[in-house]
């Protein structure tokens, strides 16, 4: 099986290719300019592997949460590539990809957290699953750092830039934060791994069915509106 994965939802811009022989890819923290870089990174990854887009079995696409523009780029590029090559797509969230980074090191439960700006974070809790890679423990959420909670006490590893933006999160009871985990960003390599698992399980979608996971429905919300909410 050959799965291409791409992500432009955060400050990172990354592409990866999963095959039965392993995973290759590239990841750059660019801040802006994802649209100008992503297709070149796709081409470079396929050339490195010596295969064409038509030889793939599917595309794993980052659907957010993250920056609105970045999420739209990720979804639209994945749709365009998949439509052109007649491939199914598999949605993967940025929080799932972050959680898998820690689980590859042996963690069983993870709280993944990204800075959502406007005084909020995107977050989700996950547990390791030998069949599906990981399982979400409840819905993904967006809200103030103070609203973040874990379903079970103790044993959770933290990862993601939400911890850099709000250091007090790391002080939560039982939370384990490895060195550098607060600077971590999603990587398409982890999305490719989850994409391969899901495609094998028959979870591939028609490209037209791929939709973003924004979590926050309204960006241009005033402070007064947020206070009333």
List keywords for this structure.
single chain, 229 residues, alpha/beta, Nucleotidyltransferase, domain 5, six-stranded mixed beta sheet, five-stranded mixed beta sheet, 11 strands, globular
Explain this structure.
- By secondary structure, the protein is an alpha/beta fold.
- The chain folds into 2 domains: 3-93 and 186-209, 2-Layer Sandwich (Nucleotidyltransferase, domain 5), CATH 3.30.420; 95-183, Nucleotidyltransferase, domain 5 (2-Layer Sandwich), CATH 3.30.420.
- The protein has helices at residues 34-49, 68-85, 94-103, 162-165, 188-200, 223-228, and strands spanning 3-7, 12-19, 22-29, 58-62, 89-92, 109-117, 120-129, 133-136, 141-144, 156-159, 175-176.
- Strands 6, 7, 8, 9, 10 and 11 form a 6-stranded mixed sheet that branches.
- Helix 3 (94-103) crosses helix 5 (188-200).
- The radius of gyration is 17 Å and the shape is globular.
- It starts with a strand and ends with a helix.
- Residues 219-226 have low confidence and may be disordered.
SSE blueprint:
Layout: E1 3-7, E2 12-19, E3 22-29, H1 34-49, E4 58-62, H2 68-85, E5 89-92, H3 94-103, E6 109-117, E7 120-129, E8 133-136, E9 141-144, E10 156-159, H4 162-165, E11 175-176, H5 188-200, H6 223-228
Parallel strand pairs: 1-4, 4-5, 6-10, 10-11
Antiparallel strand pairs: 1-2, 2-3, 6-7, 7-8, 7-9
The portion of residues forming beta strands comes to 25-35%
The CATH fourth-level homologous superfamily of the largest domain? ATPase, nucleotide binding domain
Q: Biggest sheet, open or closed, and with what strands and sense?
A: 6 strands, mixed
CATH class of the largest domain: Alpha Beta
Per CATH, which architecture of the largest domain?
A: 2-Layer Sandwich
Mean of residue pLDDT values: 92
